[in-house]
Protein 1
Amino acid sequence: MVDVNKLVRENVLKLTPYSCARDEFKGKTGIFMDANENPFGNLNRYPDPYQKELKEAISKIKGTPEEKIFLGNGSDEIIDLCFRVFCNPGIDKALTFTPTYGMYEVSASVNDIKFIKVPLNESFQIDLEKVKPLLSEKNLKLIFICSPNNPTGNCMHHSDIEYIIANFNGIVIIDEAYIDFSDKPSFIKMVDRYHNLILMQTFSKAFGLASVRVGMAFSNPAIIQYFNKLKPPYNISTINQKAVLLKLNKVEEYKNQVIKIKKERERLSANLKKMKITEKVYPSDGNFLLIKVKNATHIYNTLVDKCIIVRNRSSVIDNCLRITVGKRSENDKLVNTLKTIAI
Ligand SMILES: Cc1ncc(COP(=O)(O)O)c(C=O)c1O
């Protein structure tokens, strides 16, 4: 079993975290004269720093105890916290499998951490033989695995992910931002088995709350406590906590939306496959499709001229566009517009 405490940066171990008014008095009733708040209004009080009510609700739907849950200002805050808890700037390293979500590399640069990029194979899967020697790389602290992966859309093989977690003496972060759109099982229960695992999910995709900025990390309580130690005291606003709670009271609505999006994904995929401009539509476990075309930049620019915005991913995968699945009418508009584009 990996001893997580041994991986944590010295300054984080020694750090005395900021103690806010709500850390010192946790009660909900009384005359509050301890936080220099304005006594008037509905939004005059600081939020609950540890989002207790929200975590209780998340705990119920995810089947994970509250002490194993951390909430960040989007998954992006959690990615940054992983670097700040575990990686010494200028010394430590992180690794991922490319092409993948760009924030891992950006966060590594912000924190002055060397970033190792191991290319996925032609099926967009992890090449385990390439990874094995790297698992003992000096000063390698973090491995990011995005599954389902953005922008390729596929899940990584479970056995490959588990091999890495079980054989790496550092922290593995699995980013499951798109897992609700997949029929494959989540790794969430593996958090109980592996202490070096941080599993991330988000309210930005299937729950339709991208503007609210709430990301989830599930991990062992020691790692959750290090995140709590470093985070700004009030990282999730009261309004945002309430927005998520409201959504969690309407689980059926979110589940129906996911069903609709998955159906639309298959319909859009079938339509795109029939088109002359399409060389390949990759299978997807996300709410988007990656397609290979003859001239991605030309198609991208023509679509923009018609006010349809997709993502040109040609810089990371040759001649590929990433298309988010929209509403039925939006998908039809895209397909009809693509039909008019000459190549
Ligand atoms: C794989 C992946 N992880 C995380 C995020 C960002 O999540 P959040 O909105 O919770 O910061 C994205 C956004 O596109 C993503 O593609």
Protein 2
Amino acid sequence: MLKQNWILILILLPFLEFSQNDSLFIRKIYDECLEKGHSYEDLRSLCKEIGPRLSGSPQAQMSVFWSEEKMNSYGFDKVYKQEIKVPVWKRGNKETAWIKKEKEWIPLHILALGGSVSTNGLLSGELVIFQNLDELKKANPKNVEGKIVFLNQTFDQKDINTFKAYGGCYSIRGEGAIEGAKKGAKGVLIRSLASGIDTHPHTGSMHYDDNVKKIPAAAVSTSDAELLQNIIGKIELFWEMDCFSGEEVTSYNVIAEITGTKLPNEIITFGGHLDSWDVGEGAHDDGAGVIHCLEALRVLKALNYKPQHTLRVVFFMNEENGNKGGLGYAEWVKNKGEKHIFALESDRGGFTPKGFSCDGNFNLIKEKINLYSLYKPYEVYEFEKGYGGVDINPLKKMYPDILLFGFVPDSQRYFDFHHAESDVFEAVNKRELELGCAAITSFIYLLDNL
Ligand SMILES: [Zn+2]
């Protein structure tokens, strides 16, 4: 019996040692992020000194300089840019809209959807309300022709994960203008894709179809949506916006690396998107994501960690209205003949970490590392199959065996800020941001050591 126990201990010893070293190192990562972290100050600087960063704008260009300079200041092995072309869309003068209710004029809180055409002067018309896109698709064109469609789909409050509720409503923003135009509408308003009721309209990308007329599209705040829904009788809308699209311009993904010591040609990419919508400061979306990943590389360097694989942080450009950064990156690295084994994205806000999702076979990782026990002290419990992220998704086509991971923070408040002017630095909590940095840094460390 005694002999058998000794054999068991001898077999388990390397594994125990491995896992103990891991837990000690993860503790150091958390200590660095929480006691000597740079993430909160870096996010403040990005949000307050640069501001919102819509692709093709001067602010987006400044954010490229900002990123390069910041990465250089941390002394990584390599800092460089990848050139891409990005679309240009400008909001123009502030959008305005009123409704007339009996003798009263009521101004609406409104934002053009990204990519929308202008109203071409003041547009007025009767509002016709639908509760979702299917209702509009089934409508008799006679009831829509010459009117302005209002799509008032609400988030399903029963969905615990708010990204699921968002997904359920996404089509009113993405395809509302196409379906409205097919029925002869003059324009489309949508209820903002948001969890709660407030006065902030939420913008976001929308699509046109070359086979139907391009009509203007905008989002109204959820409080205005409630107001419109509750008005009995005819609603007259007066609406003006002068947004427009321009020629593509040159922009960049910004990249920093620590070169691998054993397998420098095998790459682990992690990042978020540097661009944001042009309202607010892009703090949660996705300032937090790029800062999470920058901090991860900084912390590993500060702890004098020598990675086996090359660790590469990518600040992707143009996730919001084209994904040119993500698509361009995947094509570029494939053409260069690089080997990519893992990629991770943070693009769900700077809230308290819950875990990681994996687009691929998570068991390959879980069989080798006990994520549950390593992360237990930090209250991170969720390691499930799921989506990686928009920016890293194109890598899947280039590398069928790659495992993609998405950082999963708490989702309850994300859609209070998403694509709205409320997405400012002050909406991000320092400790929550730092815990996210630590969770991601630890995950990158564990992937590197597989
Ligand atoms: Zn985002």
Protein 3
Amino acid sequence: MYLTHIAAALANSSVRTLSQQEELPLLRDHLLRLDRNSRRDRFHGFMDDSFIERYAEKCANDGTTIVAFFENGVVRGAAELHPPDQSPDSLAEIAFSVEASVRRRGVGSILFRKLIAEARAKGYKSLRITTGSQNEAMRALANKFGAKLVFQHGESTGTIDLTTQEYAQPAPTWADITLNAARTAVNINRAYWRTWLRMYGWRRAA
Ligand SMILES: CC(C)(COP(=O)(O)OP(=O)(O)OC[C@H]1O[C@@H](n2cnc3c(N)ncnc32)[C@H](O)[C@@H]1OP(=O)(O)O)[C@@H](O)C(=O)NCCC(=O)NCCS
């Protein structure tokens, strides 16, 4: 019963890239839902709504790629890939945000992997990530994907080399596997009930 419940919930999840202009409100609303601590961690101290609204609008217009995690049609997590031309040393920058309600379920890892695929498709050779030195969660996530973070000026900064094979294909996470298994389970369930209902002549209800 419990597993069926989880399977049904995960089957309502998906990950995809947002279209830049049209889907700006989805990114903005996700960022506005972040609680105070998450906003501090994500924006290095900038926390008010007007800042977030301006930030989301900038992302929609400056070539930033947004990979989003949807649950029941609502964006609950986002990974940002900022083009290299926006940084002084021409390195693409990445950033992550996952709402507290879906954390520690592998969502950040799914987004990270998808973002790397996007970056590689664009031909980027390396990515930079910057986070607060106290941000254990982001440090753990970045380490998992091969970023070597160094502490400087109150922040931890790391680069990820996309050209190394060792790093190129991190193993799928538990959440990836569960997400696929959940979809399969739901499809099998549907097929079972369709067959059963047909046998008893309730075709329309299927
Ligand atoms: C950082 C963040 C994106 C992680 O998202 P998430 O969906 O919880 O990440 P995952 O579930 O994929 O976890 C990734 C790894 O980090 C570890 N981790 C997650 N949260 C952790 C925490 N609070 N402390 C220690 N490790 C943590 C997990 O155990 C996991 O490692 P594992 O796969 O080896 O078990 C999320 O906490 C967040 O949005 N924080 C607020 C915004 C922020 O800090 N952004 C970073 C600025 S760029």
Protein 4
Amino acid sequence: MLEPLVSVNCLRHVYPDRTEVSLCGLEMEVNPGEIVAVLAANGAGKTTLLQHITGMLRPVEGSVRVFGLDPYEDFERVRPRLGVVFQNPAEQIIGPTVGEDIAFGMGHLKLSRQEQDARVEAILQRLGISHLKDKVPHYLSGGEVKKVALAGALVTGPELLVLDEPFSQLDMAAIKSLVSLLRSVSREDRTAIIFTSHQLEPAALLADTVYVLNGGQVAAWGKPVEVFQQQAVLEKSGLQAPDLFRLVALLQQGGLEIHADLDVEKVAAEILAAVGG
Ligand SMILES: Nc1ncnc2c1ncn2[C@@H]1O[C@H](COP(=O)(O)OP(=O)(O)OP(=O)(O)O)[C@@H](O)[C@H]1O
Ligand SMILES: [Mg+2]
């Protein structure tokens, strides 16, 4: 078996004001090609966890390994292999124009000017934002800022993409197109992805594996369809199972022999078969 790209084991962080954030109870892993979601309520420590993975914070206790290295100690070796989008991506867009900002992230690759330009054009096109190339980042809409930051994270061809709340502020159409883009990045480029979310439905569309955090512990983990059936655990963790899972649970309690699924059409077909037959 291949070594995990990321492993987090009983991490504890103490901020200068003594706020303590911990993540224990289970080793969290991201394997090559895997898409992992970290689901938890506001303030549970999702961003803190990602900042350890990206080497911006160092744990007081526990271990974080990325590509087999310590991301804080070996920042210079780990960081170029990552693509990162912050929870507030406006903070990471620093170029005077969108195109220049995206090119900026490739500085360490030592590419020719033409190669850089070609890569910028290609990534803008892939994200459907070629028209924003010469725009001043300050005037972008919230959804556009997210896309530009993602373009900057993808343009280097990272082995691991780290996304903090990629779905917040996006409308339904934007969520769907982001899910299909990230799926293609994962499939075609073999980029592993770890992302956080407090919204379970979009996370379920994308993730192979989800981890639910609560009170400094991993409260549940597994495939989305398995974890979303653990309604009591989700509620204790300040999250709510998607409506489709709650409906299936109620119908199961009422005696219908149906299975939970992420696909509404499949569930509808099972319900119709159960009541009709
Ligand atoms: N720089 C900091 N100094 C002090 N406390 C902090 C700092 N950053 C985060 N915290 C605290 O650490 C805890 C975890 O915060 P974190 O931002 O990791 O949560 P989160 O799960 O990402 O929340 P959200 O869903 O709101 O983004 C919170 O109690 C927060 O107040
Ligand atoms: Mg956060």
